[in-house]
Structure formats: C-alpha cells, structure tokens
C-alpha cells in the first residue's frame, strides 16, 4: 500500500492484514481523487472507518489542509499515527466509534469540506453513519460526503439532508457521492 500522488507520491505505508478487512484499492483511491480533483487543496477532509488511514493520508499528500481520522480499532489508530510520523504530517486521530467521534467533532465545532466513509461491506454502518451525518453540524452547505460500499448493496439515495448525486463503480466496489440537498439543486 502506497501514496499514489502528491508530495508523498510513492511512499509506502504501514498496514496489517486482518481477516474481514479490505483496504481501499489503489484503483478506487485514484478514481476518488480524480473525481474530487484539485478542489481538495487547502480544504478539510474527514476519513471515517479509516483503517490504516490510506485515504486520509492520500488527501494530505494531495494538499488537503486539515485531515481528521475516525477509527474504532486501537491497533489501526497506532498504524495511522505511525504513518503520519513516517510522512512527517500531523492530523487529529479519534480512537472511538463513529458516533462518539462525530459527537466530539460537533462539540469542537469542526466542519469538513470532504467526508469519506468506508465501513465494512457486510455492516450496516454506512446507513447509520450517513443518517448521523445527515443531521450533523460538521456538514457545511457544500460538503461532499463519499460512501464506499459494495455495488450490490447501495446506500439510500436520500438520507437526512444528504442526497446522492453521483455513483462510480469499480468491480465490486462503488463510491456514492452526496451533498446536502440545498447544494444538490445547483450540482
């Protein structure tokens, strides 16, 4: 696993294989950041269900100004910290469930331009997380939320204030892009 582009292009990341976990493939990561494009530069990015942090680290490498990671697994949080140290980068790492971490970020009055979530394909966490985000103060009027999921189990098209406006499929993996409904009318 490595950084695809940006100032850390080609740097290998620390990660470990766990049964049942599936890291975001390089193909999907590259497609994600090609879709988001240069708008990510100097923006805030939240990586939920971060694993070893490869998506958020890619955002940092490509110029995101501020990145935060949410990960429940303590060993994965240590990997994120190790990868941040490897790249000489700093970021907030929330070692908590997504509900607790998002509540903490709300209390800190944080907002994010981009939010990426990649729960396990067999879990119902995507819907729960999208539902929480759909009523959360961390969402701005132009926030883009991207959910990675199995193409066979797409998340809802509308959930809370979030409405899907684009889907991209790569093999069994799909990315669904959401924005708050007031912003989707112009998108």
Spell the H/E element sequence: HEHEHEHEHEEEEH
> Could you say how many structural domains there are in total?
1
* Fraction of residues in β-strands: 25-35%
Shape descriptor reads globular
Major beta sheet, strand line-up: 3-2-1-4-5-8-7-6
Task: State the helix count.
Answer: 6
Question: Got a strand count?
Answer: 8
Overall CATH class = Alpha Beta
- CATH superfamily membership, which one? Vaccinia Virus protein VP39
- Which architecture name does CATH use? 3-Layer(aba) Sandwich
Average pLDDT: 90
Major beta-sheet overview: 8 strands, mixed
CATH topology: Rossmann fold
Secondary structure: helix percent: 25-40%
Radius of gyration: 15 Å
What separation lies between the terminal Cα atoms? 33 Å
* Structure classification: alpha/beta
**Low-pLDDT ranges:** 183-187
Any overview of this molecule?
With 187 residues, the protein is an alpha/beta fold. It has one domain (26-184): Rossmann fold. The chain is 29% helix and 28% strand. The chain contains 6 helices and 8 strands. The protein has helices spanning 26-36, 54-61, 74-86, 98-107, 125-133, 181-184; strands at 44-48, 66-71, 92-95, 112-117, 139-150, 158-159, 162-170, 173-180. Strands 3-2-1-4-5-8-7-6 form an 8-stranded mixed beta sheet, sandwiched between helices. The longest helix has 13 residues, at 74-86. It is globular, with a radius of gyration of 15 Å. The protein starts with 25 loop residues before the first helix and ends with a helix.
């Amino acid at each position: 696993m490595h950084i695809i582009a940006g100032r850390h292009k080609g740097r290998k990341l620390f990660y470990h294989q766990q049964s049942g976990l599936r890291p975001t493939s390089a193909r999907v990561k590259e497609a994600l950041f090609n879709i988001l494009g240069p708008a990510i530069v100097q923006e805030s990015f939240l990586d939920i269900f971060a694993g070893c942090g490869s998506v958020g680290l890619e955002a940092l490498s490509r110029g995101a100004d501020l990145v935060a990671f949410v990960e429940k697994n303590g060993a994965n949080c240590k990997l994120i910290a190790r990868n941040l140290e490897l790249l000489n980068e700093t970021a907030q790492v929330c070692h908590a469930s997504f509900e607790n971490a998002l509540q903490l970020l709300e209390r800190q009055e944080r907002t994010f331009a981009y939010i990426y979530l990649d729960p396990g394909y067999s879990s119902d966490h995507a819907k729960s997380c999208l539902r929480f985000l759909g009523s959360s103060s961390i969402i701005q009027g132009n926030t883009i939320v991207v959910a990675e999921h199995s193409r066979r189990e797409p998340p809802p098209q509308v959930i809370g204030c979030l409405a899907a406006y684009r889907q991209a499929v790569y093999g069994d993996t799909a990315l669904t892009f959401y924005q708050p409904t007031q912003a989707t009318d112009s998108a």
